[in-house]
Amino acid sequence: MILPIGDTPNPRFTPWLNWAMIAINIGVFLVLWPKMSQPVDPGDPRLLDYLHTLAREQGHSLAALRELARGLSVYDLIVLEHGFRPAMPSLHDALTSMFLHGGFSHLAGNMLFLWIFGDNVEHRLGRIGYLAFYVLGGLGACAGDALLRMGSTVPSVGASGAISAVLGAYFVWFPRNQVRLYVLFFPFFMDVVQVPARVVLAVYVLLQNLLPAFVQWLASEGAATGGGVSYGAHLGGFAAGAAFAVWLQSSGLLQRGAGLLVEPENPASRMLAVREALGDGAHVRAARLWLAGRPDDPIGALDAGEALALTQALERRGHEGLALAVAVRAVRLHGRSRDAAALHLSACRLLLAAGRITEAWPHFERAAALGVPPAMMAEAHRLHGILLSRSRRSPDVFFGP
Question: Are strands 225-226 and 189-196 parallel, antiparallel or unpaired?
Answer without folding.
Answer: unpaired
